[in-house]
Amino acid sequence: MRSASTHAPRGLAAILQKNPDDVVITFAKRTAMGRAKKGQLKDTSVDELLQALFKATLEKTRLDPSKIDDICVGTCHPPSPLYVSRSAALAAGIPNKVPISTVNRLCSSGLMAIRTIAHAIQAGETSIGVAVGVDSMSKHPRPTPEICEEVDKNADAHDCIQSMGWTSEMVAENYKISRETQDKYALISHTRANEAVAKGIFAEEIIPVELKGTVVSIDDTIRSGSTVESLAALKPVFPNWGPAATTAGNASGVGDGAGICIMTTRERAEQDGMEILGKWVASSVVGVEPRYMGIAPIYAIPKVLEQVGLKKEDIDVYEINEAFASQFAYCVEELGIPIEKINPNGGAIALSHPLGMTGVRQVVTGLAELRRKNGSLLCTSMCIGSGMGAAGIFVNEARSGSRL
């Protein structure tokens, strides 16, 4: 397991210190999400969604697109993702001199896009960069991976390509995560998300986008009315595997959406009069046994904390992806982090998990929550299909009442 960051400050005081060469985030928003195959984005292609997001972002920020040095898009399953992303950027009015790349580390792809831009800024190769996370699971559901017979003889290689639902059941079986425990954590997610909707919290992080003449600005993924009884009544979706405890109510929703962060140095932001919302500090990536893919945050989070000299108690908000309640419950209990600090407005079980979007969405959501709470530090993390995990540390620099 190797560190993904080499220039990170160490210790709380150093992390909170403001330096001219800090990598900062000046804009962080996401689109509303749609339920895959059924929701408001089911007929929207990835390029159409990206074009709308780029256009809305440029209009909102008034950023001269010719000043962008590079764009990185995290996405998982659309065919020819680089061509799609490049075309969308050009159609949105971004000049053809602005380059673009795509990155795919499955569920962490959005975070990896942020990491890629951050590292380019640290290296002095980029001054203003844009990180994006996007996926349409309506148009591009997970394909069935294929490996040759010789590779498949390796046990880890065989497990690596299995259904993510199977890994959920393997975690539940091996770590004794009961159906009741899974439903308990799922109910927390559903309840918190519905409370956030009632308070209008998500409106603060969503940028409205126009698609086919309609403005999309409200998530349609959040289901109301979840109770202990209603969750317990749901049938397993993987009845032939393990304890068969994973249901549509305690697994992440399948969805569509996109998120975006504009990043630069503190010096450049101040020079150009750009509002600073947060600071990128460091990231970590790890590998675990593929069949227990979901437990990766229990390694990725301590690794990134140790890397920057922080204790878990130093973090004000954690955004940990809820791929499945089985793995999420195990991670929460193993990490020993108070649930009050984790996904305070619900997570992917309630909101949905568009694979490439999630890594950016969690940063957008976490920074917005820190601003409301006047908190300082965000740790974000997720498990990654095939047996990996990632985490990142961010500092809030926008306090309650500031303009977003």
Automatic annotation (TrEMBL):
Residue ranges occupied by any Thiolase C-terminal domain in the UniProt entry: 276-394
Keywords: Acyltransferase, Transferase
Molecular-function GO term, any one: acetyl-CoA C-acyltransferase activity
PROSITE patterns membership: THIOLASE_1 (PS00098)
Reactions listed under catalytic activity: an acyl-CoA + acetyl-CoA = a 3-oxoacyl-CoA + CoA
Source organism of this protein record: Mycena belliarum
Keyword Signal attached: no
Pathway: Lipid metabolism; fatty acid metabolism
Protein name, entry field: 3-ketoacyl-CoA thiolase
